[in-house]
Amino acid sequence: MLKSWPGRWADAKATLAALQRSFAIIEFDTNGKILTANENFCSAMGYRLHEIRGQHHSMFVEPDYARSVEYTAFWNKLTHGEFDTREYIRVAKSGVEVSLRASYTPVQDVMGRVYKVVKVAAITTEAALQAADSKGKLDAVSRVQAIIEFSPNGEILTANENFLRVISYELSEIQGKHHSMFVEPDYVQSADYAAFWKKLQAGEFVTAEFKRVGKNGKIIWLQASYNPIFDHKERVIKVVKFATDVTSRVQAIDEIAAGLNTLADNTLHYRVTKNIDPAYEKLRTDFNTAIENLETTVAAISDSVGTVGNGAHEIAIASNDLARRTEIQAANLGSVDKRR
Fold it and tell me: Which residues contact residue 223 at a Cβ distance below 8 angstroms, ignoring those fewer than 6 apart?
């Protein structure tokens, strides 16, 4: 239904009043001087209106930016009738940074000439701080862990440098391909692998030590967690994997295990000689030393047993000799008695 002019005017006033209640609004002339601002804007910036009216917009920005070519271009754009919408960082009275999602809109007269600029903003400082906090935490994790992201179907979306370094691929070589490129063919065809992805698609995380295959068949062991990421409707939109390369640890444990198996087979010549994770260097040294000591002890016991054996043999010979001589002497004595 068409409204009469008074009706449209009343509607426009009501709409503006609603915006004034919800948004931070400030008006400037074409030179950037402040004409007025609503309570929401003044409160967000920590000023009263009389403290900012007549001042220049540059009071809300860093001095270096106020002197920059970019700032001059910003105002030239507005005075030529072009609006500017994005996320802005402005400086409050206290010196604290305030984040605003805002639109600077040039207002034109009936001749099409810009006579003022109205800024309508939503204060996003808290959201920006939360986003910065989350990003900071993720960046910290990304610096120390290998991270890769997949679609719910297992397609590779992206990976950080740590992950690429572990698997020896470039991002362009894996992006868009399936996770199965990192696992052995027999496992890809298994029911376990299908169940693994169904579990992730259902929103369950998976944490374990995984055997993976890097470029040129390089075997890698990763201590990792696959974490489903949800949208606002709790639907899984991607899976993020956080991993630590534990290949050297697994290799060290395998080497020690091989030595213990050899020891169980009564063989004492085995030594762990391969380069292993420095964290397990003391274990390797202790293992080798223990085997050497055991070998020395067994050799000493063997020598002692040999010595005892030799002594017993000599005693047996002497005993036999003594018995023989005794028999001879007894025989001789018997002969003498008969002659008598």
Answer: 209, 210, 243, 244, 246
Phi-psi region of 91 (alpha: psi -120 to 50; beta: other; left: phi over 0): beta
The single-letter code of the amino acid at 221 is W
Tens of pLDDT, residue by residue over 240-282, are 999 999 988 887 777 777 767 776 666 666 666 666 667 667 7
Residue range 150-178, pLDDT digits in tens: 999 999 999 999 999 999 999 999 999 99
Laid out side by side, the sheet with 24-28 consists of 34-37, 24-28, 114-123, 97-108, 84-91
Q: What is the DSSP secondary-structure string of 117-169? A: EEEEEEE-HHHHHHHHHHHHHHHHHHHHSEEEEE-TTSBEEEE-HHHHHHHT-
What is the model's pTM? 0.56
Q: How far apart are CA 139 and CA 132, in angstroms?
A: 10
Q: Which residue has the higher pLDDT, 263 or 71?
A: 71
The DSSP string of 304-329 is: HHHHHHHHHHHHHHHHHHHHHHHHHH
Classify 111 as helix, strand or coil: coil
Are residues 100 and 121 in contact, defined by beta-carbon separation less than 8 angstroms? yes
